[in-house]
Amino acid sequence: MKGDDGMSDEEKKHTEESSDSSIYYILGGVVLVAAIAGFFLLKPKEATMAPTPSTETPSQEVVAVSPTPAPITKFACEKQYFNPMVGLPKFYLSAEGVDILTTGDVTCDYSISVGNKVVATATATGTLINDPARGGGTFRCQTNPALELARGVNTKVDVTVTNPNSETATCTQNFVFP
Predict the structure, then answer these.
(1) Percent of the chain with pLDDT over 90
(2) Are 85 and 102 in contact (CB under 8 A)?
(3) Which 3 state secondary structure label does DSSP give 146?
(4) SS3 for 16?
(5) CA distance 165 to 13
(6) Which residue has the higher pLDDT, 75 or 25?
């Protein structure tokens, strides 16, 4: 059957469907163009350098300078950290520090507590390594074997370090083992 406009119902239906499809294609194209434009507008710009005139000597590469560690003025335990044993609830505990002495061994006594109750203790030894730039020595102690400690619990680790002159330094750190 043909209507007043000379088109059959089937032709009208086909025309409406292709009109709907056209709208989707147009909207898709607009979204695609907007996404590409946004990518290029938001992309970080690279710094460009002006060319060096040929009369100058070639420029030297700029080297990033890391901050110089402070001079060593006393025996101290500076930081603690841990390394997990993969697949097991065991952890290696480490302590690092400095001393005005440059040779010898230090002893690190670890006391691990949860809720004011000591759950483990350990002793480790570290060697003082001369650091002439800082005017003293550095050390690192690590528990061995790894300690079995509870995961997900606030755990306090106290370390008392003793140097060859029987001086002591302490440091404390709270960890929540993963």
Answers:
(1) 56
(2) no
(3) coil
(4) helix
(5) 97
(6) 75
